[in-house]
Specification:
Blueprint: E1 3-8, E2 11-15, H1 20-31, E3 36-39, H2 50-63, E4 71-77, H3 84-92, E5 96-101, H4 121-130, E6 134-136, H5 150-165, E7 171-173, H6 179-185, E8 191-195, H7 204-208, H8 225-235, E9 242-244, H9 253-256, H10 271-281, H11 288-300, E10 308-313, E11 322-324, E12 329-331, E13 341-343
Parallel strand pairs: 2-3, 3-4, 4-5, 5-6, 6-7, 7-8, 8-9
Antiparallel strand pairs: 1-10, 10-13, 11-12
Helix pairs in contact: 3-4
The protein binds N-carbamoyl-L-aspartate and zinc ion.
Zinc ion (ZN) binds next to loops.
């Protein structure tokens, strides 16, 4: 007998779509299974103003193949010059669903990010008033802090003081990678956290043992096994504070397999198959729908999707190992174990 699993159609609460040929190649990989996604604004140049977000949303919709449905949930890239009135108008019109905080220098295309939190106080106050979530890349960039400690140090030295200084600010801790992140996300009602597909699967050994594996390198970098297990427990717990944000972040193979390789894992293609396998391994298939389809809309105060997807279990699933983007290829994340669930 075939085993089947029907879920409300999922959403991706953290996604990089890029622009141009890359956008056209990767967008169908997400739109095939997901109804909506929170679109990261770290383009070159970044999506900073409401006008930038309108133009980017139009480019995304123009890249969507005929017959596919998808709703991009736009975000603005917070800078020290962001105008609180522009954020207010963009939120009130429904154009944007969040603002993204990148500490300057934390990750891909983040040099225009924030250095001095006092300079964004006015924007944060408007956001708290509107209930507009701030999505935070939670890593300090201080050179003295070890890269494996950057998330934990950020929570203590930046995130907690920031939240105390702006009561009512609703925060999504993006792509948490540590037990410290899990614990902090559980500590208040105006907090939530996204967890990626790949951080449920890999620890730092996957990147470094037996030769360097650039396709497992992303930021925040995968941590020790005990942290991966804490993330698994949080994701499969049914706790509504945790939901899927794949952080699917395409870079061409030429830029990944490089002396100074780019950070990012591309998981859009096989995320649902991997998550079904992971939740089944942890005897939590009944909690997958919450993680992929219910907890995110609840935090973002949006309705859940009206339709469903059905996964079936059978012989190991095959999917392309690379996506052709015309001017190169993007390698699809390899979980390292067979996948048996496929979206019908
Ligand atoms: C992201 C990217 O490539 O834009 N990379 C990554 O490793 N996740 C940026 C980010 O989310 O940090
Ligand atoms: Zn990201």
């Amino acid at each position: 007998m075939t085993q089947t699993l029907t879920l409300r159609r999922p959403d991706d609460w953290h996604l990089h779509l890029r622009d141009g040929a890359m956008l056209r190649a990767v967008l169908p990989e997400t739109a095939r299974h997901f109804a909506r996604a929170i679109i990261m604004p770290n383009l070159v140049p970044p999506v900073v103003t409401a006008a930038d977000a309108v133009a980017y949303r139009d480019r995304i919709m123009a890249a969507l193949p005929d017959g596919m449905a998808f709703e991009p949930l736009m975000t603005l890239y917070l800078t020290e010059h962001t105008d609180p009135a522009d954020v207010r108008a963009a939120a009130e019109s429904g154009l944007i669903r969040a603002v993204k905080l990148y500490p300057a220098g934390a990750t891909t295309n983040s040099h225009g990010g924030v250095r001095d939190m006092d300079k964004v106080r006015g924007v944060l106050e408007v956001m708290a008033e509107l209930g507009l979530p701030l999505c935070i890349h939670g890593e300090v960039t201080t050179p003295e802090v070890d890269i494996f400690d950057r998330e934990a140090v950020f929570i203590d030295t930046v995130l907690d003081p920031l939240r105390r200084a702006t009561p009512g600010l609703r925060v999504v801790m993006e792509h948490i990678t540590t037990a410290d992140g899990v614990a902090y996300a559980r500590s208040a009602d105006d907090l939530a956290a996204t967890i990626t597909t790949h951080h449920l699967v890999i620890n730092r050994n996957h990147i470094l043992v037996g030769g360097i594996k650039p396709h497992y390198y992303c930021l925040p970098v995968a941590k020790r096994e005990e942290h991966r297990l804490a993330l698994r427990k949080a994701a499969t717990s049914g706790d509504t504070r945790f939901f899927l944000g794949t952080d699917s972040a395409p870079h061409t193979d030429a830029l990944k397999e490089h002396a100074c390789g780019c950070a990012g894992c591309f998981t859009a293609t096989n995320t649902m198959s991997i998550l079904a396998e992971v939740f089944e391994q942890d005897n939590a298939l009944d909690r997958l729908e919450g993680f992929t389809s219910l907890h995110g809309p609840a935090f973002y105060r949006l309705p859940v999707n009206g339709d469903t997807i059905t996964l079936t279990k059978g012989a190991p699933v095959t999917y392309p190992s690379k996506i052709d983007i015309g001017e190169g290829h993007v390698t699809v994340f390899d979980p390292g174990f067979p996948l048996h669930w496929t979206v019908k």
